[in-house]
Amino acid sequence: MTASLSSEFEYIRDNLKHIEEQIQNACNAAGRSREEVTLMAVTKTVPPERINAALACGLSCIGENRVQEFLEKRDELHLDGVQAHLIGHLQTNKVKRIVGQVDMIQSVDSEHLAHAVSEAALKTPQGCVDVLVEVNIGDEVSKSGVPAEDLQELLEKISGFKGIRVRGLMAIPPILPSEAEKRAIFSQMRKLFIDIKDKNVDNITMEILSMGMSMDYVEAIREGSTLVRIGSAIFGARDYTK
Ligand SMILES: *Cc1c(COP(=O)(O)O)cnc(C)c1O
């Protein structure tokens, strides 16, 4: 390793050590076991060698936002035993390129998209892909995510699609200033998650509640997140100029 790469490795390792402590503390405070929470490294804009440095620290899950960027970087990544998820907004015309290439698509938010993903997955050797349904919680301006009040109806519509397995929910709430406000939004998500679980919709399981990013993962875990998606707290501020 060159000097700069080894110092980058140390930087990422130290960040991960700090995040790991925070996750453990949040689990303790919530009376949850650490095993209930998956730490995903969000790798948009991060070059492959830095992603590999994070993977060398023992991470087992990465998330990319864009189909094209993931496909370009993938061959350089050390993904043995590592899950890769698509977490960004997915356009229908990119569906065929990504289905079969990732372990999960976290950003399904319409019947139209769910149908396209299902049809594409039926043509892959696996015949099926795991998905989460993205919920637009607490954020009227964002275009992604199904509104909470339409969630149940969407799940019922897509539950018959044979090429997808709905395994839970994902949300990107607005960044709110206070701990209490952050927790209130995450708590709404947990309630939705539990309500849906209790309804036992055919072919829909509620195992994964993907919420919490660099600014709010502690609050998300306190409120029941099972997967936190962390980018800048691991890799530093993103550089969009490259
Ligand atoms: C960028 C991104 C994240 C991570 O954001 P940070 O604030 O850097 O932790 C998580 N989820 C999604 C969907 C993202 O696009």
Characterization of the model:
The structure is a single chain. The protein is α/β, with parallel strands linked by helices. The chain has one domain: Alpha-Beta Barrel (TIM Barrel). It is built from nine helices and nine strands. The protein has helices at 3-30, 48-56, 67-74, 95-98, 111-122, 151-158, 179-199, 217-222, 232-235; strands spanning 38-42, 61-64, 83-86, 104-108, 129-136, 146-147, 164-171, 204-210, 227-230. Strands 1, 2, 3, 4, 5, 6, 7, 8 and 9 form a nine-stranded parallel beta sheet that branches. α7 links the parallel β7 and β8. α1 (3-30) packs across α2 (48-56). The protein is globular and about 55 Å long. It starts with a helix and ends in a 7-residue tail after the last helix. 38% of the residues are buried. The model has no long low-confidence stretch (mean pLDDT 95). The structure holds pyridoxal-5'-phosphate. The site of pyridoxal-5'-phosphate (PLP) has 14 residues, from β9 and α9. Residues 42, 44, 65, 87-88, 172, 213-215, 229-233 line the site of pyridoxal-5'-phosphate (PLP).
Write the topology of this structure.
Blueprint: H1 3-30, E1 38-42, H2 48-56, E2 61-64, H3 67-74, E3 83-86, H4 95-98, E4 104-108, H5 111-122, E5 129-136, E6 146-147, H6 151-158, E7 164-171, H7 179-199, E8 204-210, H8 217-222, E9 227-230, H9 232-235
Parallel strand pairs: 1-2, 1-9, 2-3, 3-4, 4-5, 5-6, 5-7, 7-8
Helix pairs in contact: 1-2
Residues 42, 44, 65, 87-88, 172, 213-215, 229-233 line the site of pyridoxal-5'-phosphate (PLP).
